[in-house]
Design brief:
By secondary structure, the protein is of the alpha+beta class. It has 2 domains: 2-19 and 30-174, no CATH class; 180-311, no CATH class. Helices cover 61% and strands 6% of the residues. Helix 6 (103-121) crosses helix 7 (137-144), helix 9 packs across helix 10 (201-214) and helix 10 packs antiparallel against helix 11. The termini are far apart.
Amino acid sequence: MRALLRGELVGLALCVPFIAAQMLYAGTSHHGYRPWLKKLGPPSFDTLRQTGRMYVGHGLDAVIAAAPLAAWDGALLTAAIGALALLLALGVTANRADEPAHLRAHLLAIVVGTFGAVFLVSQLRPVFHPRYMLATFPALLLLLVRARPVSLVALLALFPIALGTLVEPRYHALMLKPDYRAAAAVLTGTLQAGDVVAAEFLDARPLQHYARLAASRESPAVRALERSWDHARTPADTLEIWKRAITTGRHVYEIDVLRGTQRITADALARRVAGSSDTGRELVFESRPLPYIRIWRRDSLPSDFAMDLAAN
């Protein structure tokens, strides 16, 4: 137990300065993931449920719902989620005489304490995202392997193993992979001087990279994508960017990427597959086979945005 605690303290000593430096950089430069996290908003208890599903299937449930390849795929995913949940419950409640007395309480404190602390902090300043909670995985795995009897553990483990070997490989090509390279190719061929791109920070970075590979740094596409970096800062920045484009008769290109725990759901992806009823803009790019990323071109502002513009 002491060796485990020493290892954890060493890990904290390495991680805390890095996290502090990242927070300082985001706060002083206004770059980084902070604007995107703020847009996600405070997490809810449903966010925790979706996080658990993502840990098992990594968004596989949304892809299966939108583009099912077999009728039993969804049932096997549900069975795998249930099996792992039962294994976790058995691991938490198991009494083991062959381990340190306080190990179970320690593991539970890591999992529950980490999720609880980040969840509460995110009610004031959103920082919750599944990838940031991966630090709890070692404790979760140790709780899973505490489960007994071994025969039941082996039986339940067959479901997630079958999911990973029989289902996930057939959906791998459909999993969440925004095709930024193809989107950037479309933008470099259509953007003109004076056009602006409405894109969040996380979407602008890869688009900038691929645009620079396809065109020179001084091209209209690259310059517009670099200016789009400001879009995610504040509503006032967004208003100013759109105002410049509309008042000079240029186009606004909206980058719409389906991403994030609260947004990657089966219903959201199914609605995108069915299409959009928005008639105020023209669709100029849509990734295939599933529409994870879309590019819209606008010549005028939406009605609600136009009212905000008039008010300012």
